[in-house]
Amino acid sequence: AQSVTQLGSHVSVSEGALVLLRCNYSSSVPPYLFWYVQYPNQGLQLLLKYTSAATLVKGINGFEAEFKKSETSFHLTKPSAHMSDAAEYFCAVRASGGSYIPTFGRGTSLIVHP
Amino acid sequence: DVKVTQSSRYLVKRTGEKVFLECVQDMDHENMFWYRQDPGLGLRLIYFSYDVKMKEKGDIPEGYSVSREKKERFSLILESASTNQTSMYLCASSFGGRQQETQYFGPGTRLLVL
Predict the structure, then answer these.
(1) Which residues pair with B113 in a beta bridge?
(2) Nearest C-alpha in A relative to B31
(3) Rounded distance between C-alpha atoms, residue A4 and residue B24, angstroms
(4) H or E segment at B44?
(5) Does the structure show a pLDDT above 90 at A29?
(6) φ, ψ for residue B62 (rounded to 5)?
(7) Given an 8 Å threshold on Cβ–Cβ distance, is B100 in contact with A45?
(8) What distance, in Å, lies between the first and last C-alpha atoms of chain B?
(9) What is the pLDDT of residues A90-99, one digit of tens each?
(10) B85 near B16, Cβ under 8 Å?
């Protein structure tokens, strides 16, 4: 079984501030982990994914995430928020050797203040 | 670029109507998915298909059916629409064979059932 918890349904930051979106997972086998972003009135698109290579994964638009097995976490960060980062962010997990169906978190809405 | 298209961005239907949502992908993907997205609940899987004419129920299949007669097309059918099916519907596709494959999402169909 696998599950994902995203802490905080809403995160508010000022433009230029650090962005930190939290994701904790549960998986009985090594996981594949994904972050997707959904801009208003659009579908989801991949930001980055962890596939058991490097534990620090760099994605698009300056985002990165670090896989920490001991903490079962895959938090998403960006050093400096931009107004265009305002969106909904989803963390997802898929267990290796399991089905092709990922489990999604409930999402975190990022609000960026000028 | 991978493209997943959905037949309508917005749809208004009446209770009891039969509703068809169409999804087409142009990348020869084996896997296709239908999700519904509701505020605070994230993405919930309705149905999944891993090959033509093959389908598996997701977490919330009740009140829905699907059809996949061609590899590139995956249809979601609401046999008799009800107001609790008012939601955003997202289609996605991915390559088969590996769990780390990215899902590609369509722009979504926002359905209102009156």
Answers:
(1) B13
(2) A100
(3) 29
(4) strand B42-51
(5) no
(6) -65, 130
(7) no
(8) 37
(9) 999 987 766 7
(10) no
